């Protein structure tokens, strides 16, 4: 019975796409149900002998159970009734009649009829209840995601906007009283707030593209070291108390990748390391290429991650408890999404000596014959 439940569950999942395609077509459902039991009954009639009609009953019950996974109630009841009539007509002695010769066979037929109808009815009802439950869970998940997104927007966008508005207001109302040095500081605050605002908007747009499966990579030949240096320079303003080092143990060839997406992957991970490691931390970036795959390692000597949270850091809007304010919990999720768009992945582990290591692995074409034209591209 356990094995039968497992098989039915497996088949139900496999046929879900088929069920969705016929759920609004009643005529097709009736034809499919009646036709299926009729075909199976004719096949069994050519295989099994007169004495094996009990085995045929089990086979027909299995067919009715499978049909109940994707047919509505009335079509499945029709199929169950048809299976009982066919079983009686083709298999119960005397064959090819609707008469039953013995009380035992009459009772057996009645039991089969009741079990087939009840089995089809309740299986269909259970499936309907499961669909309702799944829809309710999806609505709850969507509502939770909306609330999280709203809270993130209200905080992450409100803070830089308030900074920009406040700074501009100070400049307008105290134009002549403010010294040049103070003005420069205010301009820097506006620039930092604007960059933060722009980064958060880009994160939400990137996550929207990932959720809608709109991401389509555009591979071209890129110098990976050049991309890494761009990421280091982009984090330069926030690394006064950190050190970011590219470990270049050997030269690597050109790679056919989507350069802007890989740059965004690296930026999100490096920026995350800069934000959540203590002052004085060192971030090491290593890279290697072998067997049609590029690997990038990003190590830090910070506090690492709780072992029970390692599998959660790539989830949307997830932020470790008791971490500093700032950020929406989207950066690492977007990085993982962009890596998967390349048919790659990002893994995370804690280092024995302390800190954490992100490993980016992306399959790609490799150009081992770098030409002058390639290098000047």
TrEMBL record:
Keyword Repeat in record: no
Keywords: ATP-binding, Kinase, Membrane, Nucleotide-binding, Phosphoprotein, Transferase, Transmembrane, Transmembrane helix, Two-component regulatory system
Catalytic activity: ATP + protein L-histidine = ADP + protein N-phospho-L-histidine
GO-annotated cellular components: plasma membrane
Record's subcellular location: Membrane
Membrane-protein topology: Multi-pass membrane protein
InterPro entries linked to this entry: HATPase_C_sf (IPR036890), HATPase_dom (IPR003594), His_kinase_dom (IPR005467), HisK_dim/P_dom (IPR003661), HisK_dim/P_sf (IPR036097), Histidine_kinase_KdpD (IPR052023), KdpD_sf (IPR038318), KdpD_TM (IPR025201)
Transmembrane segments: 28-48, 55-86, 106-126
Gene Ontology molecular-function annotations: ATP binding; phosphorelay sensor kinase activity
Pfam family, one: HATPase_c
Domain Histidine kinase: 152-366
Listed EC numbers: 2.7.13.3
CDD domains listed in its UniProt record: HATPase (cd00075), HisKA (cd00082)
Listed name of the protein: histidine kinase
